[in-house]
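**Entry details**
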Amino acid sequence: MARIATRSEKLDLRLTPSAKQKLYRAAAAANRSVSEFVLESALAQADETLADRSHFGLNAEQWTEFMAVLDRPPQHPPRLKRLLNEPSIFEQNASA
C-alpha cells in the first residue's frame, strides 16, 4: 500500500488583493482548494525550472558529439597558460 506523505510544513505568501482573488477563481475553476491549486501550480513550475538542472536527454547524434568533445585532449589557451605560470599576488608579496 502506498504511503501518503503528511503535510507538516507551511509557507506564507504576501500578495495583492487582486492576485488573491485570481487564485481563488482559478482554484474554483479547477475544482481544487486554493491550497491544492497553489501547491500543484508551484510544484509544476518548480519541476519545469529544475528540469534542465537535474536531467537532460540527447539523441544518438548529440550523444556522439558530446562523447567526442569529452574525449578531446584538453586545450591550453595561451592566456590561461601565462596566468597559471605567473606568480600569484601572495607569492609576489612574500618575497618583498
In short: Residues 17-94 form one domain. The chain has five helices and no strands. The helical segments are 17-29, 34-54, 60-71, 78-85, 89-94.
